Amino acid sequence: MNKVNVITIEKNIPIPSVVWDKSNPERYIFIDTMNVGDSFKINGNTPDFSPATVRSHVYGRNSKGIKKFTIRTLEGRSSNPIAIRVWRTA
After folding, report:
1. Cα 70 vs. chain centroid, distance in angstroms?
2. Exposed/middle/buried for residue 11 (C-beta within 10 Å: 0-12, 13-18, 19+)
3. Model confidence pLDDT, tens digit, residues 79-88
4. Strand 80-88 with 39-42, pairing
5. Which of 12, 20, 49, 53 shows a CA-CA span of 20 to 30 A to 4?
């Protein structure tokens, strides 16, 4: 017997407001203090930050503001980095 997926289209469902992780709202505040040319490295010695989550956060910042950053994978593959370095470029 074949299973059939049923998707119901609904109207007038309100969009909930965005909920941010309020447990540590200043987790990435150090990025705001960076000047052009500054950089930092994330690797196994930074247990509170993983290369993948920092990379995602920095890419999000690039699309939202005037401060621009570039990221290079130092160890591992770019799809699953072990270590990265982030530079502020603008």
Report:
1. 13
2. exposed
3. 888 999 999 9
4. antiparallel
5. 12
What are the CA-CA distances from residue 36 to residues 6, 29, 66, 88 (Å)? 52, 16, 12, 5
Residue 76's alpha-carbon distances to 4, 60, 73, 80, 83, in angstroms, are 41, 22, 7, 6, 7
Q: What is the pLDDT of residues 6-55, one digit of tens each?
A: 888 889 988 877 665 555 557 888 888 999 999 999 997 888 888 988 99
Q: Long-range contacts: 53-56, Cβ < 8 Å, 24+?
A: 54/28, 54/84, 54/86, 55/81, 55/84, 55/86
Q: Which residues of 44-75 are buried (b: 16+ CB within 10 A; e: fewer)?
A: eeeeeebbeebbebbeeeeeeeebebebebee
CA angle 36, 41, 43 (to 5 degrees): 160
Rg (CA), the chain: 19
